[in-house]
Amino acid sequence: MDFKYSAEAEAFRHEFRTWLEANMPKRNTDGDDEPGSDFVRTNEDDWQFSLAWHRKMNSGGWVGVNWPKAYGGRGATLEEMVVYNEELIRAHAPGIVNGLGIMLVGPTLIHWGTEEQKKRFVPKILSADEIWCQGYSEPGSGSDVASLKTRAVEDGDYFVINGQKVWTSGADRADWCILLTRTDPDAPKHKGISYLLVDMHSPGVTVRPLVQMTGDRGFNEVFFEDVRVPKKNLVGEKNQGWQVAVTTLMFERTSIAAMRDMMGSVRHLTRLAQSVRRNGGTAWDDSGVRQRIAGFACEAQALRYSNLRQLTRRLKGLPPGPEGSAGKLVASDLNLRISKFAMELLGPYSQFEHGAAMAVDGGRWSYRMLSARALTIAGGTSEIQHNIIGERVLGLPKG
What we know:
The chain is of the alpha+beta class. The chain has helices spanning 7-23, 44-59, 78-90, 99-112, 115-127, 241-253, 262-275, 287-315, 323-346, 364-375, 382-393, and strands at residues 132-135, 151-155, 158-165, 176-182, 193-199, 205-209, 220-230, 234-235, 277-278, 281-282.
């Protein structure tokens, strides 16, 4: 296997690295910044900091880099996207604030939207002048999204929407929502669904945060009560929204940006072991501790090479292979086990919450432990990944 990137990709790396070195903000540069993600920045100062960084990235042409040049992107190749994310990780760069808009909404509109929709929405997605969320899941329609019950009834030049969505990341800060709604209740499950762009500031939209055990409020439930949406906000054809929705999911599944830096987590764990006092020395002095961490490092490297294997398939023009489900399953499980072991190292100090005065390392590991379970659920639960691997890869019968 050849682990070298092309000359074009390395030139892209040099350009981006040079820009980052000249423009990175002074804050959050140690690679161990405050926990949280683009969707759970409840602190206004953190949000404004990340918003300013997003806009600086965009002014340099480094947001939506894989978008076509005609729509403000750089037309970056898949290989260049991998390099792009490697450099963000290497520089410990802050996240941008409109991740769903950049990763899902923009590419979907570029593919399916009318010229009017593209001109109206695409530039403001890149600039983060308008923040987006995704209205797919419902209380009774999680993994089976097509069973959704939110209704849209035609009324002149409008659709009138009633229903509820749940697990809506970032809805509390979103200006717009890509919403799946049923427009023909008598059609088969995957038919009769339409894909709408909904102004989250419309009368009748109510957002309620779902407070997680970490204290984050990034997830939300959203209620729609007689919400009027102009028909010009329909993406694709009426009752054919499932096709558009699948396109959105395709962009989500193939996003390289979602890959976690597991070796970074191992390095942080190593630093923790070297700082925790035990029996007159540090936990790192214990060969058993070093062996456990070495095992995590081996798994993280194996995961990296598996991801590169999938990249090779894509570069050859082949569809994504089973490495995607296997990689997601392994990464979420490894992250959980690393967090659990950190709790063992901390002992009684693991009970201090993030930000507590006596918490070791600011309580970051306690936060990570509480949030680690989320990765075994988000993006397809571990149980679903097991089923995919068993049925589609190993050919096992359905349970």
